[in-house]
Amino acid sequence: MFVQSRWPLIKSMILAVSLSGIFVSGAFAQEASSALRGTSSELKLVPEDNAQLRYSFAPLVKKTAPAVVNVYAAVRVQQRQSPFAGDPFFEQFFGGNVFGRRQRQRTSRSLGSGVIVGEDGIVITNHHVIKNASEVKVALADGREYPAEIKLIDEQSDLAVLKMNVERTFPVVPLGDSENLEVGDLVLALGNPFGVGQTVTSGIVSALARSQKGKQDFGFFIQTDASINPGNSGGALVDMQGRLIGVNTSIFTKSGGSNGIGFAVPSNMVKVVLESVRGGSDRLLRPWIGASFQSVTSDIADSIGLERPRGALVAGVSKGGPAEAAGLKLGDVILTVDGKTVDHADALGYRLATAGVGRSVTLSVLSRNTRKELQIALNTAPEKPARDTRTVGGRSPFTGLKVANLSPRLAQEIGVSTDKRGVVVLEVKRRSPASRIGFRAGDILLEVNEEEVSSTNQLDELSKAGGRGWEFALERNGRRYEEYVR
Questions:
Q1: Of 89, 101, 127, 203, which sits 20 to 30 A from 15 (CA to CA)?
Q2: N-term to C-term CA, the chain
Q3: What residues does CATH 2.30.42.10 cover in the chain?
Q4: Angle at 250 between CA 248 and CA 256, to 5 degrees
Q5: Which candidate in 82, 128, 318, 435 is catalytic?
Q6: Which fold, 287-380?
Q7: What local confidence, expressed as pLDDT, does residue 323 receive?
């Protein structure tokens, strides 16, 4: 009886002692916390009882929320005032002022979120939040607003960097290391969904290295079930230490609302973008190794002796590039970069981008059933041939096209394979012959009248020479099309 009557007291004492080993306080807590932050593997605990489940995220939110902001972008668009405005026949007689009605500008406004990552007012957000913006404002959590300058945009990673035009010190969210994330880790998502005001939601990391439908170049997202809705774009995804481990960018939904499948750009990609800004660049330069890749399928894995589909298969090697110099060959499979796993071709692009230009990395490669390691230099893509950007004149189906010579550098910028060659369409002038034909930005012109197109100058001369019929071939989204126009 004595033992039974004392057992609840003994249990409570044991629990108190065990909790005191975890939830320390005072100076020792700060030292322990700082020591943990300095290690690559942190202590992660699962709540053991109802008492632990009642702990609050409030201290963490108070720490990070002041650095999460609203981003307002204004885009000016032309609004037609007459059904005949823009018609070449009527404009021939009346000019742009059709029947005395001028076109006027309409301002379209968008709302998103952002995160202050520099005490000098540097803000990270999504590219699609401020795309084509003529004016950007940042509103702090306390209601103050400041105009902001766009310092860098990177459409391929959907990131943009802003700088608030004011001299003061701002609160920041420190950057974490997204490589330390594991599936199941707790996270908070902060932003301004639907413009209702700053909102915090909680969840876990649902998946890592996730490719998302619709993103043509960047395929290495953090997936979370923390509720993310329209307006959250550009907001913070933070870990339990209050560090930024991702920038919320999009959701998978059919209804427009959150279904518990949200995506965030990893913080290590954010670091690369910020380093470019700090270095004075307005554009993110990605490493170029002179090779093209594809993901390993189940059939390919079986044929080369891999236990499961993983890695990036070398589909092409550019002559004279870093890949050829390092000894990379067609059919090789890259398994790791500096010891970090490569699950698919998009993951390889992410690994190289976050390693940074100017460095060398070690690739673990499976080549003809033999594993080996290769050192490869990460250089910027060459711009050969020169762009020679021009607008095509003359009287032809190509009149109104803004074109440039395609080089590895330009191919990186517009999101096409760096081994492509030819003349690429950058813009299509509205109501031009090229617009009526159906040309699109990103089309690559390959041949005109059975003559290979190798430069913008050649295309311009062919257009000005004229002709009764035009036969041409172009590449669009990896597919070849042939057309004939009279």
A1: 203
A2: 104
A3: 287-380, 390-485
A4: 130
A5: 128
A6: Pdz3 Domain (2.30.42)
A7: 93
* Per-residue model confidence (pLDDT) at position 419: 78
Say if residues 350 and 338 touch (Cβ distance below 8 Å).
Answer: no
Q: Are 217 and 110 in contact (CB under 8 A)?
A: no
Q: Is 34 among the residues known to form the active site?
A: no
User: What are the angstrom distances between the C-alpha of 217 and each of 200, 231, 418, 442, 456?
Assistant: 29, 23, 12, 14, 26
Q: Nearest Cα to 235, choosing from 277, 275, 187, 282?
A: 187
128 in catalytic set: yes
> How far is it, in rounded angstroms, from Cα 295 to Cα 440?
28
Q: What does the pLDDT read at residue 198? A: 86
Question: Which of 110, 178, 206, 233 is labelled catalytic?
Answer: 233
Q: Distance between CA 177 and CA 165 in Å, rounded?
A: 29
Q: What is the pLDDT of residue 78?
A: 59
The active-site residue out of 158, 332, 443, 460 is: 158
Per-residue pLDDT, 85? 53
Sign, Cα dihedral of 423, 77, 247, 152: positive
- Residues whose CB falls within 8 Å of the CB of residue 392, separated by 6 or more in sequence, listed in order: 398, 399, 400, 401, 402, 403, 434, 456, 459, 460, 463
Question: Amino acid identity, residue 402?
Answer: K
Number of H helices, E strands in the chain: 13, 27
* H or E segment and range at residue 411: helix 408-414
Residues 6+ apart with CB under 8 A from 371: 335, 364, 365
Fold of the domain spanning 390-485: Pdz3 Domain (2.30.42)
The whole-number pLDDT of residue 311 equals 93
Q: Is 303 a catalytic residue?
A: no
User: E strand or H helix at 480, and its extent?
Assistant: strand 479-485
pLDDT at 415: 76
pLDDT value, residue 104: 61
Is the CB of residue 445 less than 8 Å from the CB of residue 425?
yes
Please give the Cα distance from 447 to 326 (Å, whole number).
Answer: 34
CA atoms within 13 A on the CB side of 216: 13
**CATH number, span 68-164:** 2.40.10.10
Distance CA 177, CA 199 (A): 24
Tell me how far apart the alpha carbons of residues 175 and 65 are, in angstroms, rounded to a whole number.
14
> What fold is seen in the domain 178-278?
Thrombin, subunit H (2.40.10)
Block means of pLDDT (10 residues each) for the chain, 486 residues, are 41 39 38 41 70 80 94 75 50 48 63 94 94 91 92 91 94 94 93 83 88 56 87 91 93 62 92 91 88 91 90 91 92 94 90 90 92 92 91 88 92 81 91 90 91 90 81 90 86
